[in-house]
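Final report, closing paragraph on structural work. Over the funding period we assembled a curated collection of sequence-structure pairs, and we close with a single example.
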Amino acid sequence: MSTLPARLLASGLFRRFLLGMCVLALAPAAFMAFQLIALSRGGIQDAVLELHLKLAEKTAQSVSIYLGNLDEKLRFTVAALKRPNLDWTTRQELLRSLVESHTDLEEVSILSVKGAELMKIYNPQLVQRETAPDYLRDPGYIEYAKTRTPRLWTTAREGQVPRLEVYMPLSDQTDIRVAVALKTLWDSISKERVGGTGYAILVGAGGVPLIYPDARLARSE
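Its predicted structure, as stored:
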């Protein structure tokens, strides 16, 4: 005659009991493991996001410093040009000093309030030849002339680094215009890497891309 334990083993009830006990024992452990994985993943995502935010803040700060440095030099020159009884030779020297003080500065001009170019100094290393543009058709000048308050105007140029134009009033009858090729910013921002595939873009008014990694990203994209 078979014993009771033997009959239980033969019926498989004991095996099902053991399986149930194992499930009950492993379920909390599996739940805790899932929770730990989720927390770890969330922590990694938060750390990566914080890193990216700091990188964006650092890049934005570099742009602010660049523009602040340009603004300081321009305001110093404007203050000097406003001194009374300056002859044109002295004015030319002041404009030349401004051009030579900034590696990205292409040209600086004194304009009449009607948009006529009265004087220009340009950097021959950045500008192939001196030009006399029609400022009355220039979008940046047109916007500036509406109020004659200091204005920045950016222009994306195909195959070239973007240009920044700065307009400021010089007197009741004259204005000053500075054109800057944003090469220094282009070199730093376009080479920025975020992880394995990320990149940085400097966007102008209206969503126009000004600086981007042209080797990795077509302008149309």
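The chain has a mean pLDDT of 82. The two ends are 84 Å apart (CA to CA). We thank the funder for supporting this effort.
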